[in-house]
Amino acid sequence: MYIKIKMKNIFCFLLVLFFQSFFSQDISKKLDQATKSLLNEPEMYSANLSFYVADEQGNFIYEYQGNKGLSTASTQKVFTAMAALEMLGKDFRYATKVSYTGNIEEGRLSGDLIVSSNGDPTLGSWRYTGYKPEDFQNKVIQAIKSLGVYKIGGNLIIDDSYFDIQTIPGGWPWNDIGNYYGAGVWGVNWRENQFDMHISGGTNAGASTSFKKIVNLPEQVKWVNETQTAGKETGDGSIIYTAPYSEVAYINGTLPSGKTTVVSGSVPNPPMQLGLEIYNWLSNNDIELKGKVTSASQLLIEGKEYPSLNGKEILVHYSPTMDKIVYWFMRKSVNLYGETLVKTFGKVKNNNSSFSNGVKILKDFWKSKGIQAPMINFVDGSGLSPQNYASARAEVQALIWGKKQSWFPIFEESMPLYNGMKMKSGTIKDAKAYAGYHTSKEGKKYVFAVIVNNYHGSNVNAKLFKLLDILK
Length: 472
Fold this sequence. Notes:
single chain; alpha/beta; six-stranded antiparallel beta sheet; five-stranded mixed beta sheet; 12 helices; 33% helix; globular
């Protein structure tokens, strides 16, 4: 009887294996046919493709040049987000502190007011309830008023010295870094280091445009506006050119006629911008600042040493937890968050916040998880640099590893939904990528990544979706 039951169990097991193998072969064949069809499309004439599919246990299903390293665009973020959840933890918070030096006598502070941070990228962000600019403003003013201070005799210093002075990774294109998605990383960030310009188009094509207002940008920045008016339905075709610490900005391209368009750019000097805003907060609350507004990086630029000041803390403002940061990092593809995380990795690991050190730590992390080094040639943490190279297989390996971790539900929730599939997208010039998870109507769970470089045309999205539809 025991032998019969054992033989029956073996038979059932072999039957399951047979159907799994048959099903996988069928899907593999369909994927191969669809891949060959994609490669014959005109848009793919000179393109490179890396495509890899496995099941959730990591069993191979299909690949086309799965080991080939290509520019990942924002699918690079899957590596950074999972590393952050593992290395820093889902409950990690950044902290911004307000302190003062000197003494207080009869409402007069004889020293400086100092605002310092360990790089909180969410400070003043509009995305989080309770963490908006006005929330931080109220905390700062209440903390100062609690001291009974109405006059500050020293300076307002924004201490952004926690990170090094290099704010953007090497390899970022010049025509990206002036735009909001190219914002750099400082030791003190503010409003996601983004400003918004309201620009009105003219009435006729080719007419000049005019600035209506600029939000969150210092008045001393000098503008050269060479944007022109295009058709009503053309959308925003403008590009902003500026650089960290610059006081000059240039915008060109086209904007639609007959309406005002909001164009977002990267603030050249966020610590100083925050300082100027705090100065206004103080003034509006009848608190006089006798000194000037400056920052640690500004003093360095001026050839001065920033004194190490141990002030008396009056406020500690904590960021949202890492699980919330990862959610917006993935859902809205906030490049600033990715580069802040890379610098944080380096600072926490070995007190070196350089991009090169943080990227090395990120790469070493994934090497330790079994991914071959040539398949993860990282340059940044967000994927904006076209010099990032990773393979579809590496992305799938990372996604499979992440699925086994206790924090996976947090990561899974952060994944956007495209084409009815949970996946992160990536787009830079002539590069498109998707990486994620999908459960078919038969209940089969897939992990996949597809990366295309040097394609031509505008409808590659639809063709990649058609390829991935095989997994449905």
